[in-house]
Design goal:
Blueprint: E1 3-8, E2 11-18, E3 24-29, H1 41-49, E4 52-57, H2 76-80, H3 89-103, E5 108-113, H4 115-126, E6 131-137, H5 153-156, H6 164-178, H7 187-201, H8 204-215, H9 221-224, E7 231-236, H10 244-253, E8 258-262, H11 274-285
Parallel strand pairs: 3-4, 3-5, 5-6, 6-7, 7-8
Antiparallel strand pairs: 1-2, 2-4
């Protein structure tokens, strides 16, 4: 996959595409602190097989996109008190629009996981004409709903690591804690993705800036209730980072949304469930029409 660059003001956003240029446009939005490389290759291939032209990108403060180091790192106290962040989920949603513009897509099916789901929801609210269908995975519509289990919170505020090997080991510990108990990820797969991410741009302060955007966001229920578009909400019943109540609330707020809860799934995309999730996204896309 070749990487290109989109521009949103002073923000540079690295993105890539795969699949037939004639395929249905689909934009993937990744979660907190993770580069686009964390979208599983097999999952992307499954979407391409189902007729999509798949695009993914690095959010600001991640990977090869712009890192806003001048904003500094939010303190733990500012995160707990939800002080105004350096940027918002709205800014990150507008980044996604810049990627759509660079691709020449007037609209796309949008799939977001975790923080990416929050950005996807915000994108649909701010720019409804740009979203053909919305899939929100392992996400929520308010920082007060689906809160992490207490033993997970230290992961979100962990300090920097000393090198790429330590970064890989931490990522393995993280996924052992938040991953799917019924579908554990191979350590080698996590290690490889973590090492690539570290080499591209390791930035724990950037993760905190993204986290500040999450915790300061307003409840999106009033805005989501006004949307009229095909919507899918996917969640695991064993997710300790964004608990299932977040997914259920999101589905209730989106008119006509389909809710799929997978037993034994945590805060990841297990390989065993990827074909079914890809089928659900393809079925959702078939509900969209230009007239709608």
């Amino acid at each position: 996959m070749s990487t290109s660059t989109a521009r949103h003001g002073e923000i540079s956003l690295a993105y890539g595409t795969e699949g037939s240029p004639q395929g249905e446009p689909l934009l993937l939005i990744m979660g907190l602190g993770l580069s686009m490389d964390f979208w599983p290759e097999r999952f992307r291939a499954l979407l391409v097989e189902r007729g999509f032209r798949v695009a993914r990108f690095d959010n600001r403060d991640v990977g090869r996109s712009t890192h806003l180091t001048g904003l500094g790192a939010p303190s733990a106290l500012s995160l707990l008190t939800r002080r105004p962040p350096g940027y918002t989920l709205g800014d990150m949603a507008d980044d996604a629009v810049a990627v759509l513009d660079a691709l020449g897509w007037d609209s796309a099916h949008v799939v977001g996981v975790s923080l990416g789901g929050m950005i996807a929801q915000t994108l649909a609210v701010r720019h409804p004409a740009r979203v053909r269908s919305l899939t929100s995975i392992s996400s929520t519509l308010s920082p007060r709903i689906g809160r992490p289990l207490p033993h997970v919170l230290p992961l979100l505020l962990a300090g920097p690591v000393r090198d790429r090997d330590a970064a890989a080991e931490r990522m393995i510990r993280v996924f052992r804690l938040i991953g799917s108990p019924a579908y554990p990820l191979p350590d080698a797969e996590i290690r490889a993705a973590a090492a690539r991410s570290y080499d591209e741009a390791h930035d724990p302060d950037g993760v905190r800036r993204q986290l500040a955007a999450i915790v300061s966001a307003a409840d999106r229920r009033p805005m989501l209730r006004r949307l009229r578009l095909p919507a899918l909400v996917v969640h695991g019943d064993a997710d300790p980072l964004v608990r299932p109540s977040g997914g259920r609330a999101t589905a209730r707020a989106l008119a006509g949304a389909k809710l799929v809860i997978y037993p034994g799934m945590g805060h990841d995309l297990p390989a065993a469930l990827q074909p079914d999730i890809a089928d659900e996204i393809a079925a959702l896309a078939r509900r969209w029409s230009p007239a709608r």
